[in-house]
Amino acid sequence: MTKRRRSALVALLGAIPVVLSAVLPVSVANAHGSTMNPPSRTWQCRFNENPENPASAACRAAVAAGGTQAFYDWHEVNLPNVAGNHRSMIPDGQLCGAGRAKYSGLNLARDDWPATKLTPGANFTFGVKATAAHQGVWTSYVTRDGYNPLQPLRWSDMVQFNQVTNPVPVNGVYQIATKLPSGKSGRHVVFTIWQRQLPDSGEAFYLCNDVIF
């Protein structure tokens, strides 16, 4: 090979990374996670069961409605640029799935989602597994008295009972300390919004926990 040809080949090879960087998407590190204690609906169907062969009728129905991929992507029930505008971005009946078709199975109105028993009025620490950690505000709601799990979950069903700013994860798990609402009984949904802080990101995550007081 002549010197001129070698120089041309080197120049071509050197240009390839520049071309690839122009056409390939850039990966952006986002916060991701979901409640492991008590298990969210995604955690339950992914880790406590098997999305390929779910044990519970609710997880089987969720897979039938939206497929298995939602449970392999258990940590990204999110909206990228919501910036606090949750109610305008997520319609009634789609809270648990963040208004995304991919997670439509999480919205099924059923009274047989696997549920965790909690004591009303007790101190409790929610454990949230994070695959990426970011500062943010965690706001937790519980369904109103008289909530019917066989009806689609609405914003008007929700009552706030806790808010924590910038908890520090320990070994990849956020510890969200709270005092559970008192006077509750029966089946309810705990709904938590994890809103990242601007200017870092307007991204938010949505966690649905089925509980029995």
Automatic annotation (TrEMBL):
Keywords: Signal
CDD domains the record matches: LPMO_AA10 (cd21177)
Record-annotated Chitin-binding type-4 domain positions: 32-211
UniProt keyword Magnesium, yes or no: no
Organism domain of life: Bacteria
A Pfam family hit: LPMO_10
Extent of the signal sequence: 1-22
SUPFAM superfamilies: E set domains (SSF81296)
Protein's UniProt name: Cell wall protein
Source species: Kibdelosporangium phytohabitans
